[in-house]
Write a structure and sequence with these properties.
The complex is a heterodimer of chains A (about 325) and B (about 625). By secondary structure, chain A is an all-alpha fold. Chain A is about 75% helix and about 0% strand. Chain B has 20 helices and 20 strands. In chain B, the strands form six sheets. Chain B has a five-stranded mixed beta sheet with strand order 10-11-12-1-13, with helices on one face. The longest helix of chain B is centred in the first third of the chain and has 19 residues. Chain B is globular. Classes of the chains: A mainly alpha (about 325), B alpha+beta (about 625). The interface between A and B is large, with 80 and 82 residues.
């Protein structure tokens, strides 16, 4: 187990470096100038040139290496070891200036939100998306597992078709429709909940439910399939023959094994849910990561694009690792 | 099985922890949804409307505009009085004894420091051009750009902190030497301008001219030893570091959550303030912002963009129709539309408000001699452009597609928005004349004409407008058209490179002078996307720039606009924008209906809240025959 964790953690920076290279190459090719507003007055050409030089946007390779240097923590290490950081702090203090801000993994400034660093944006948005995504996954698990078991008890029964129908609706109805409908029914008409839906744990319910539906549908189908397969296996027949109660058969024996495919789906699903959904966050006015994926590309905010992509990639890798660890923990047969 | 539950229980606990750590603050006295999220609180870097709006709450320049006067009168800000020389080139401002939000004195040096920042190419101010009206301003910007370029050449590879510091010292000296701003004593600033500029005071009220507290901001200076550039560590704009001089100060700024403001106890004009706290939550979805208003979470939505807004306007009109006699008599008294709403019976349908804006929607014509593919450009011929303009039924776009009470635009500058400026008439829809002109230009019945491409962006409802234009032009002129949809960044690049035939466009004025709209058509202007070049037009602008008599100057500019919208048509005005607000006029006051569209939100006062005077604010009534600014007969 330790070997697995170590191996994955060593792979992480290499994978991230490859993803960084690919993302930057693609993002660099987005047409347009990130330092210019989409509407209205254009800055003077001298101003654009000066700003491009300041952010190193005038040369791909200069940007590539300087970003890598800052974001990987190499520059931080170098400055600390060489004593340059301490020297700069001393110089700033001597001149009466605020000491320079140092970050270990410096993801750079946002080009769109000039007062913000990408680190700050992610630090403020990621916990929100993680909380929302985790709640959604929990809700999806409850709904999905119950619906899946209900469907599996009597395949092709009315209950099975009902859960299938609900699952289909959950997958096919776009979240902006469900979200807007929920907002209209609960806060606007009934006065329950509020907009923006962020701040109190109870406020998370509506957006998390909206976000959970596609996951719930998927989990329901996975659970149903697994359960049907398990319920036909020999050990269940033995258990029933021994007179084990039906609920014990279902939940103690069959579900335990039927849950394993759900568990392996949970890794990528959790990474996906927790890095934010653009639509759910926008409709429910939640300050999460989802908006940055879309807006950063539209604004060609290079630093932010790379920042959010790297975070998403890291989370995907880490969640898959967690799932693998959980898998072994839940089922010692797997090595 | 229970073993599997453990991780999920841990997860649930973590969620509660994260959410609990971010508790919402109590409701502020006044909560509003801004046009978008604030991008920066650095006045000199601002160019988005939402930023400028906040700047006018937390900051104040030497002077400001009275948004509750028709003429948008210049009123005292940090300066309590000022003198303008007869040649309109020297402005003397006398500062009152005023304090920053940290209690320190505002000095003339704070203004000089801020204006120097605005002129530095390092800061990248979109509005540096405003400061370059000051004599020597442009020379200073150019000098600094040069100095940085040669610094980078000399210093390749080496990074010497002392050289960068020396350059910065030299830059400060150059600023004092080159730029004609002098602090003659601790309370007086004398500014000398490049040219007579009658609208300079209007610009001085713009956030680019706002002071920053030098003692605080200079602590965040950060010199790059490799390039010699100066950067300001972004932390200076974040509370509690940010020190301001406006009616409110920033209490907290939670990015993408909300910006909270509280009354600045050091502000000089406390009696103008009727509330103690303000909150600006980030709500980017247009439908959610309407719902936030409906649930009472916000008091004002500054831009109603929801798809159903035309229906909201229709409901309001139905409400007016139900109270027709009352409404007509109030309107006949020349009352401010907000005051009319306040005197009518309360009704939720009446919460939507439509006021003329200081901006126009138009279409660009590429006036270059050749098209990007090398063919001759028929649009280079003014007769062709005029034919296209005459063949456009603007009314059907304003009333049939937009449906939010906008008026079709015969001119570029919204009429009555600038005092004493008489807009030219423009041309009416005239299919016969259009066909005659196209034939005269060599394309009778559209024969031999290129397939005209209409370039638009995806969102914003441009598609229906493009289809209407295409239909009009095909039907009236017999030409063929295509419509191209592009992402906004690509669109912007294509316009810049003149790689298009016709394209949608818009422009909003920045200050109360016709040049704010007309300069974009000058030959070679950075915002002249049309490649329009007319020596006659340029000469008129030059002549106006030298004219010191205000009336004579406006007559020259009227002629310049007439050239654009009656003869040359580098652009085709379609309609004048409106501002669409959502607020309850019976609950609060302080929002202005002035067509210039600026708001001084510290004037907002909620009725019956025990704070402020509760006196309703509005534009004074007009005499019969006079127009509310921006109003046009339709």
């Amino acid at each position: 187990m330790l070997g697995l964790i170590l191996r994955r953690l060593i792979q992480l920076p290499i994978i991230l470096a490859v993803i960084y290279t690919l993302t930057l190459t693609l993002a660099w090719r987005i047409p347009g100038n990130p330092l210019e507003n989409p509407e209205g007055r254009r800055p003077a050409p001298e101003v654009v040139a000066a700003m491009q030089a300041q952010y190193r946007l005038d040369s791909f390779w200069s940007f590539y290496w300087s970003y890598l240097d800052n974001a990987s923590g190499i520059k931080y290490l170098r400055d600390t070891i060489s004593g340059r950081a301490a020297e700069q702090t001393r110089a700033a203090e001597a001149a009466g200036l605020a000491p320079p801000t140092r970050l270990i993994f410096d993801l750079g400034p946002s080009l769109q939100y000039r007062d913000q660093r990408v680190n700050e944006i992610i630090a403020s948005a990621l916990p929100v998306s993680m909380a929302l995504g985790a709640t959604a996954i929990l809700i999806a698990l409850v709904i999905g597992v119950i619906a899946g078991v209900a469907g599996a008890i009597k395949p092709n029964s009315f209950a099975d078709f009902l859960t299938l129908a609900i699952a289909l609706v959950g997958i096919s109805l776009p979240t902006f429709v469900i979200g807007a409908a929920l907002l209209l029914i609960f806060p606007v008409l009934l006065g329950w909940g509020r907009i923006p839906s962020w701040g109190r744990p109870i406020d998370l319910l509506l957006p998390a439910f909206t976000l959970s539906l596609p996951f719930a549908a998927y989990i329901a189908r996975l659970t149903r399939l697994g359960m049907i397969e398990q319920l036909q296996s020999d050990y269940i027949r033995t258990a029933r023959a021994k007179g084990v109660s039906e609920s014990s058969v279902l939940f103690k024996h069959a579900l335990k094994n039927a849950f394993l495919p759900v568990l392996s789906y949970l890794g990528p699903a959790a990474a996906y849910a927790m890095t934010g959904s653009f639509v759910v966050e926008r409709v429910f006015v939640i300050p999460g990561m989802g908006q940055h994926f879309v807006n950063a590309v539209q604004n060609k905010d290079l630093f932010l694009i790379i920042g959010v992509v790297l975070i998403y990639a890291s989370m995907l890798i880490i969640f898959n690792l967690i799932v693998d660890v959980l898998y072994r923990w839940a089922d010692p047969r797997i090595e | 099985m229970f073993r599997l539950l453990i991780p999920f229980v841990v997860l649930a606990a973590a969620i509660l922890l994260i959410v609990g750590a971010d508790r919402p603050a109590p409701r502020a006295d006044f909560t509003f949804i801004n046009r978008g999220d604030v991008t920066t609180l650095d006045y000199q870097q601002m160019s988005w409307q939402q930023d400028l709006r906040v700047a006018k709450i937390i900051g104040e320049g030497l002077v400001t505009n009275d948004v509750f006067s028709h003429e948008y009168a210049i009123i005292p800000g940090v300066a309590d009085r000022w003198e303008v020389s007869a040649d309109l080139r020297t402005y003397t401002f006398h500062l009152r004894d005023e304090k920053w939000s940290d209690g320190s004195r505002i000095t003339t040096a704070d203004f000089l420091y801020a204006w120097m920042r605005g002129l530095l190419p390092d800061v990248g101010a979109d509005y540096a051009g405003f400061l370059q009206h000051i004599k020597g301003g442009r020379a200073f910007s150019d000098w600094r750009a040069q100095a940085i370029a040669s610094f980078a050449k000399l210093n390749t590879g080496a990074s010497d902190p002392s050289a960068a510091a020396a350059l910065w010292q030299q830059t400060k000296q150059k600023f004092a030497e080159l730029v004609s701003i002098r602090a003659t004593d601790s309370h007086t600033i004398v500014v000398e301008l490049e040219r007579p500029t009658p609208y300079f005071l209007d610009m001085v009220g713009f956030p680019t001219f706002f002071p920053v507290c030098e003692a605080v901001v200079s602590r965040y200076e950060n010199l790059d030893p490799a390039t010699g550039r100066i950067k300001w560590n972004q932390d200076w704009t974040k509370p509690p570091n940010l020190v301001t001089n406006g009616p409110f100060e920033v209490e907290s700024w939670k990015f993408k959550r909300d910006l909270r403001l509280r009354r600045n106890p050091y502000y000089w004009n406390q009696s103008a303030i009727g509330i103690d706290t303000m909150s600006i939550p980030t709500v980017e979805d247009s439908v959610s912002s309407v719902m936030a208003f409906e649930t009472g979470a916000v008091d004002w939505v500054s831009d109603v963009l929801a798809a159903f807004r035309a229906e909201m306007v229709a409901h309001k009109n139905a409400f007016y129709a139900e109270h027709k006699s009352e409404y007509d008599s109030l309107k006949a008294q020349g009352l401010d539309p907000i005051e009319i709403d306040r005197r009518l019976p309360p009704d939720p349908r009446n919460n939507i408000h439509i006021f003329p804006a200081f901006g126009t929607y138009f279409w660009n014509f590429n006036c270059s001699r050749t098209l990007p593919d090398g063919r001759t450009n028929p649009l280079a011929d003014p007769r062709v452009r005029r034919a296209l303009a005459l063949a456009t039924d603007k009314r059907s776009i304003a009333d049939g597609i937009r449906r939010v009470g906008e008026h079709q635009a015969p001119t570029l500058i919204p009429p009555h928005s600038i005092g004493n400026y008489n807009s030219p008439k423009g041309l009416e829809f005239n299919p016969e004349e259009a066909r005659r002109l196209l034939a005269e230009a060599g394309y009778p019945g559209g024969k031999g004409f290129i397939t005209l491409d209409l370039l638009i962006t995806k969102d914003g409802g441009h598609e229906l407008i493009a289809q209407t234009l295409a239909k009009d032009w095909e039907r009236v002129l017999g030409i063929n058209t295509t419509i191209t949809v592009q992402e906004v960044k690509v669109f912007r690049e294509r316009l810049k490179n003149k790689n298009y035939m016709t394209a949608r466009a818009s422009w909003f004025g920045d200050y109360g002078d016709p040049t704010s709209f007309l300069e974009i058509s000058r030959t070679g202007d950075g915002n002249n996307d049309r490649a329009y070049s007319s020596s006659k037009f340029d000469a008129l602008l030059d002549k106006a720039a030298k004219e010191t008599d205000r009336t004579a100057r406006l007559r020259i500019l009227e002629e310049a606009e007439r050239l654009l919208v009656e003869e040359d048509f580098p652009l085709l005005p379609i309609f004048y924008y409106v501002n669409m607000y959502l607020f309850d006029a019976n609950k609060l006051t302080g929002i202005s209906s002035h067509p210039r569209g600026d708001q001084l939100l510290y004037r907002v006062d909620l009725f019956k809240d025990g704070k402020g005077s509760d006196k309703p604010l509005s534009l004074p009534p007009l005499k019969p025959g006079e127009h509310h600014d921006g109003e046009t007969e339709s």
